[in-house]
Specification:
Blueprint lengths: L5 E5 L2 E10 L3 H18 L4 E5 L2 E7 L10 H15 L5
Antiparallel strand pairs: 1-2, 2-4, 3-4
Helix pairs in contact: 1-2
Length: 91
């Protein structure tokens, strides 16, 4: 099950955004990761990524000092990642 972007640790003071995305098969997962790589290179924003055969976990953190709050750059990256998903086959 896909989950929405979740602000952590608190919705009113997010230090990072998390999201789990599920795919129907490995091919779809790999396709998404390749397109995410291209987007990351283009924007120079690199989310933390963990993945398995049919899922990807993403974490977008604010750059700079520890405990900095998520800002416009991270929100914009989340929107761009959503755009990748709209072009990607999913379950």
């Amino acid at each position: 099950m896909d989950q929405p972007w979740t602000p952590r640790p608190k919705p009113d003071k997010p230090e990072w955004l998390e999201r789990r995305i599920e795919f129907p098969d490995y091919s779809s997962t790999r396709d998404f990761l390749e397109r995410l790589n291209a987007l990351s290179e283009e924007t120079q924003q690199f989310p933390d990524i963990s993945f398995g055969r049919t899922y990807v976990n993403l974490t977008l953190r604010a750059g700079g000092e520890a405990k900095q709050l998520v800002g416009e750059a991270e929100q914009a990256m989340a929107v761009r990642i959503e755009g990748l998903l709209n072009d990607s086959p999913q379950a």
